[in-house]
Amino acid sequence: MYSTDLRIRLDGALDLDPSHAPPPGDRLAAVLVPILDSGSVLFTKRTEDLSRHPGEISFPGGIRQEEDVAAVDTALRETQEELGIAPGAVEVLGALPAVHTFVSGILIVPFVGLLSDPPSLRPNPGEIAEVLTFPLDLLAAAEEEVEWELTVGVYRGHAYEMGDHTIWGATARILHSLLELVGAGRA
Fold first, then answer.
1. Could you tell me if 112 and 93 are in contact, meaning their C-beta atoms sit under 8 angstroms apart?
2. pTM for this entry
3. What is the 8-class DSSP label of residue 119?
4. Residue 155 placed within a domain
5. Residues 75, 98: contact at Cβ < 8 Å?
6. pLDDT (tens digit, 9 = 90+) per residue, 47-80?
């Protein structure tokens, strides 16, 4: 089972009790990086009518709410709202390094979680246009460093062309961090 190997590779590499405070004026968010037993990562494609990041590939997650005791609660609550995955169905292994989005002023805490293969999904049609899964090894092979001109500046970072889908931005930064830790696609 791929998840046993993944646990070994991530043992001691993830933050088991992350505590983050966003810079003044910014907000705290959390996402779940869902990994299936098969070694595939689950992503969402956001609907085109969302106010933030429409149509982009992302991990399930969102802004921390008052009822969320910890950032992991945010990630699990949002995953349930977006995909219908109950918090008890996720084995949270720990957190990757936080990622700050400068344009939107959000500090994102990404949690790695294992899911059974295949998970029972009920995507929220108001938020999720499509659910995607890509094997870790294929993601590692697709990784490239890019520099793109955008209307708000220049994006310099990693990108992953996966068929008709491009993973970039904060999601790519989180994914790159995971791939470095697990050594996917490397000898």
1. yes
2. 0.92
3. P
4. no
5. no
6. 867 556 656 899 999 999 999 999 999 999 999 9
